[in-house]
Description:
This protein is α/β, with parallel strands linked by helices. It has one domain (21-191): Rossmann fold. The protein is built from 5 helices and 6 strands, in the order E-H-E-H-E-H-H-E-H-E-E. Strand 5 (177-182) and strand 6 (187-191) form a beta hairpin. Helix 1 (41-57) runs parallel beside helix 2 and helix 4 packs across helix 5. InterPro entries: His_Pase_superF_clade-1, His_PPase_superfam, PGM_Phosphatase. This is Histidine phosphatase family protein. Pfam families: His_Phos_1 (PF00300).
Amino acid sequence: MPASPIAPASPLESGDARLLFIRHGSAMRMTEDLRDPGLTARGRDEAAATASQLAVALAGMNPHLLASPLARTQETAAIIGAAIGCRAVPAPAFAEVPWTDGQPVVSRAADITDWLGRGWGDMPAAQQRWAGDVVAAARQLTGLVVVVSHFVPINVMVGHARGSDRVLEFRPRPASVTVITRNGGDFAIESLGSEDETLFA
């Protein structure tokens, strides 16, 4: 299911931002031979449903479209871009939380599940720096921007907007839309995307 309906945008002042963070659609299972999987048929349907919603909500607004360079986000962004009339620009800062050195696929899910139970102050230093870079990259964005990203980066932005140290703030459903604004100051949450229990999609 796509996110809840997106509220119409108010006009933005110069330097302000309205950022629509979209989690990618459901992806194929990750394996050692396929560490960068693309979307499943269900994931393409999820992306198409959200794209249709965005085409209506953003009609005539000329948004920018950014996407994590991973296959599942690029495929989601291609579907969305076709609907809203723009091509996605790769944005490595909004890729999923980085792998640890030598981390095998078999432990990736367990490691992320463990991290989601922590605060950022208890995370490995590399992941803490990465989270800071996510926020820093978002600070550089102005205007209306659609960002196709992943579970953890979206949580980074929501946690930052809330002033929270928790790694897990909510569980965005695949292809859901979370809207975060910046109006002359720091970030604020306009609306959270719909949720489910899908950590790995």
